[in-house]
Amino acid sequence: MISGSNTKSPLLWVVHLSVFLLVLLWTLPTIGLFVSSLRDKDQLAVSGWWTALLSSEQNEIGRAHGPDAQVLKDGLYVISGNILQEEGKKGTLIAFGWRAQEPAAFKAGETADLGKDGKMTVNSDGSYEISQPTEWTGSRGKRIFFTIETPPIFTLDNYREVLTAEGIGQSFVNSLTVTIPSTIIPILIAAFAAYALAWMHFPGRAVLIAVVVGLLVVPLQMSLIPLLRLYNGVGSFFGVPAKTYLGIWLAHTGFGLPLAIYLLRNYIAELPREIIESARVDGASHFDIFVKIILPLSFPALASFAIFQFLWVWNDLLVAMVFLGNTEDQLVLTGRLREMLGSRGGNWEILTASAFITIIVPLGVFFTLQRYLVRGLLAGSVKGG
Amino acid sequence: MEQLASALGTVVVGVLACVAYFYGSNWLLDRVFPANAATPEGGIRNLRMAHAVRPWLFLGPALLALGLYLVYPAIDSIRLSLYNSDSTQFVGLDNYVWLWFDAGFRQSMFNNMLWLIFVPAMSTFFGLVIAALTDRIWWGNIAKSLIFMPMAISFIGASIIWKFVYEYRGEGSAQIGIVNAIVEALGGDPQAWITIPFWNNFFLMIILVWIQTGFAMVILSAALRGIPEETIEAATIDGANGVQIFFFIMVPQIWKTIAVVWTTITITVLKVFDIVFAMTNGQWDTQVLANYMYDWMFRGGGDFGRGATIAVVIMLLVVPIMIWNIRSATADTKGH
């Protein structure tokens, strides 16, 4: 749209650069989450995700075997073992020390002088040997400070863990259970209403359209308390649980209807008048026209709404928290994430993997059906204004 | 899995029920008021009756759902705001008086005003700039797609993403949050950003700006494309540079769209709940109305009176935009 003369401007590289920086700014947070979810949890805890491809260095403290492990060899009392195995660490030992002030004073393979003819050697594979001419006494082993270098480790362990042990798998199923009916049921109801509002003449039509536009912006918060009371009342009256999937399906249907009716009405009203009128002349009833002409023609609008509703229901936290319980078979993904933020606040390997699982479905929908989403946005807000 | 089966079953049953309702009620209508009645006058009268009833058959289920889930609760919320915590006793305006003097409410209002200024302004600004810039380069659509992406991410997912960005580790250990790593690299002191009163509001708002910019960009990009080419050519001939063209030629022509974007984001901001709930739950002076309402709704067994009162306040803030929307929509549909 911007005229050709501008495109050749010498400042074009500034445009390229600034767009690149903006894109970077917008995608980095998500990239960080994704990279982190694939990292080894020990590395994730001690180094930034941007260093994921570098080897990481960690300082550790361990303790050698105690005096009861000593053996007499060539006149020296020797204690040996493998510090990496004993401390359960992976990687390559690159430096060690025996005093807290100088935890990395010696390179791997060197021999440290402990004083009084005592010697300590620690190799890169973690094996160590401590010796002195007199017998070791006391009950505890000597402290060894060491630095290990671990190569980058990428793993799917985090995903395996959250899908099974952390209950994300079950919540995924719960989220699907909530989302599928909540997306499909409103479409049909809204489509009939939209047709009536677009092509049928009856008193009060203009008022109804205005009401739908008004309801578009009514905050959900207005509905929560009365509906919660209503659900509790119905539940205790019939002796059934108040928090059920049926309840949340209907709630999402109700909350999604204004947008559905509005989007579909705008679209259906724009369909060519001739098609509908010639069908009328041929004796088709409103019902026939709707089913045979309107529904197939409004597929793009139906798809737009379906995507909106899907994203909204899948991503919803508030409605799920109010109308569903937090039992294992009702906790949806967003609710589970929320719970983990509280209980697993510091375990980033759990949080990042869980978060990525919850956003992967909407991202997939987003990238495959972006066309319809954009169309819906344009229809939904430009005209609505 | 059984659950999913029941969900799919519900879809099938629900869709069939809808079809049965619409088909059945239409069929019934044609039987009750047959067009080929005994007398021609009867036939015409029947047609007219069927014509009058049919729209309401089409609208029926939708009106029922809208009424039950939106209209009735909205009215009931206003009623409940005049009752006590378990809605058993009429207390008049007591809840509103309480609200007026309540410190938590004042803070929520103050923070919400910050949100209402910052988020729509920044989202619209970035959206406009990105829309204008990406139009000039060959990979603009890819860039737009990536910036639009956060729209698909849930608020709670976004909160985790950003909590990781803001992550703070104590002195001495390596920072794994990118913001603190950058601050440290530049020689500053790492901070626990979301616990710093006042400024932490902005760190939460950035999350919503991150999500909403894509929306603003998409709408404004379409509007920019709709600007007549001649106006820009004329300005170019008159010697205007790119920045001048943008601010003095293009922006004035899309004012209306900017207003639409602004108000739409304003509505989203007023309802913002998940981000504050997940990031701070209102601690460190970050409370906002929607979270405060949820808080009262369930605090200590739930105070429905006060919760409803806060909901009514949120509604009141929305009403001006609602009226504006209705007026322009009505103007749009006139003549159809």
Highlighted features:
heterodimer; A: 385 residues; alpha+beta; MetI-like fold; five-stranded antiparallel sheet; four-stranded antiparallel sheet; elongated; B: 336 residues; mainly alpha; 74% helix; 0% strand; globular
SSE inventory with pairings:
The complex is a heterodimer of chains A (385) and B (336).
Chain A: H1 4-7, H2 12-37, H3 41-46, E1 56-63, E2 71-73, E3 76-82, H4 83-87, E4 92-97, E5 106-107, E6 111-115, E7 118-122, E8 127-132, E9 143-150, H5 157-164, H6 168-199, H7 205-216, H8 221-238, H9 245-269, H10 273-281, H11 286-297, H12 299-315, H13 318-323, H14 333-343, H15 348-382
Antiparallel strand pairs in A: 1-9, 2-3, 3-8, 4-5, 4-9, 6-7, 7-8
Chain B: H1 2-32, H2 40-80, H3 94-101, H4 103-134, H5 140-148, H6 155-165, H7 178-185, H8 199-225, H9 229-237, H10 242-253, H11 255-270, H12 274-279, H13 289-298, H14 304-333
Helix pairs in contact in B: 1-2, 2-14, 4-5, 4-8, 4-11, 5-8, 8-11, 9-10, 13-14
Walk me through this protein's architecture.
The complex is a heterodimer of chains A (385) and B (336). Chain A is built from 15 helices and nine strands. By secondary structure, chain A is of the alpha+beta class. In chain A, the strands form two sheets. Chain A has a five-stranded antiparallel beta sheet. Chain A has a four-stranded antiparallel beta sheet with strand order 1-9-4-5. With 336 residues, chain B is mainly α. Chain B has two domains: 2-80; 95-333, Orthogonal Bundle (MetI-like fold), CATH 1.10.3720. Chain B has 14 helices and no strands. The longest helix of chain B is centred in the N-terminal third of the chain and has 41 residues, at 40-80. The radius of gyration of chain B is 27 Å and the shape is globular. Classes of the chains: A alpha+beta (385), B mainly alpha (336). At the A-B interface, helix 1, helix 2, helix 3, helix 6 and helix 7 of A face helix 1, helix 2, helix 4, helix 5 and helix 6 of B.
